[in-house]
């Protein structure tokens, strides 16, 4: 089966909203062996929407449509699909009741136009929406399948996983399984060079690399019958690639750096405090996105100004005057200061020039110093990063997390 994902909404075409639904649905369909060949976006225009639905059905077996299920006049996705299939719209009483109950629960009055959301093309399989008022549906006709879901990701994703995936998977007979090796500190070209011989002779297992914001991920994929695990073919390749890449590998469970670092802190019962200058709290933000980190993360201090470095962290004024705020010496005193103030096992700091202004020949934009105080020893690492301000800040924060990972794990930095 091949598929097309059609997103409906003028706001998508105007760039007001990013179409994250297409990425999510593509990944999920790929995991059960359904190939996605097309992504399409169309506005809330009846003629263009009808034309897009017809084109998608001509070239794909399965069409997943998101958006256009609201109560307003321009929400016409279901109506246009019904027209294309020559079906009439019928009321689904259970959906109407659920919509009414939803408004009662919120303590709000349901307007008449919300009843429109309880009508579906005749013969549809209705998909409940537990996060909003717009149910979805599945329509089968002439060996074609159309899945219609609401646009908001918080509504669409659970509906897709809980209802659409089981429906599609029951007839596929096979699945696609993947393993992910996540790395940091190595470029994509260098990584590919280190495993190229494995890539060249791949058959049952597909090996692909992709880079994102300073990280490189290796994806290992294999198609197998539903009755099989599928990982028996992947594991030998995974073991060999991990062996070759060594300390660059930080996860084989598709976990991000902040989750890996948090797990290491928890497993080793180590507390941590962080002092950030140029990253402005991003490192702390990444850590607190992980559930359970409150057991080990004591505090974060954003010491953006020189005064803050002195007053909040105890950095010596003479250190800043002599070496500058962006220096090995200042980074070390920041790390030791936040560790001392918080009374934690680990103190971490970063100071640098994120740009685009502020750089000099001696200290250019992208220059960073990060330090880590742990077990009576403080290490400091110098970075020279490139890119715009956002990229420099993001990559710098990942370098700090990787430094924590390496220090706790006893890995050379």
From TrEMBL:
Residues 4-170 form the MoaB/Mog domain. SUPFAM superfamilies: CinA-like, Molybdenum cofactor biosynthesis proteins. Pfam families: CinA (PF02464), CinA_KH (PF18146), MoCF_biosynth (PF00994). It comes from the Bacteria. Belongs to the CinA family. HAMAP family: CinA_B. NCBIfam families: cinA_nterm (TIGR00200), molyb_syn (TIGR00177), PncC_domain (TIGR00199), PRK00549.1 (NF001813). This is Putative competence-damage inducible protein. It comes from Acetivibrio saccincola.
